[in-house]
Amino acid sequence: MATLCLISINVATKTTIRMELLTRHLIDITLTFDGTFFLPYQLYFTSEQLHRAYPNIDAFFALKRHHDPSLLFMNSFYARYAR
Question: What is the pTM of this model?
């Protein structure tokens, strides 16, 4: 079973903070059912949530470092979560 939510919000600071908290809460609920979540454009999920949902993510990051050691191909997802 899959559930998809598309939520459009006003991009005000207060609204963004509330959306981040809601997203993290929904991801926590998903993880209690051993689920995963789509890796969205907005990076509201925590590193812990990412590792719980995608236990092999570090292997992915290692492969990326192997094939792109100079970080020619970079994005905000990799910069934030691939430590």
Answer: 0.86
How many C-beta atoms surround the C-beta of residue 20 within 10 A?
14
Determine the straight-line distance between the first and last CA of the chain, rounded to whole angstroms. 32
Q: What is the pLDDT of residues 28-65, one digit of tens each?
A: 999 999 999 998 888 999 999 999 999 999 999 999 99
Q: How far apart are CA 10 and CA 2, in angstroms?
A: 26
Task: Scan for tokens 């470092």, then name that residue.
Answer: 65
Strands of 1-83 (E only): list them. Answer: none
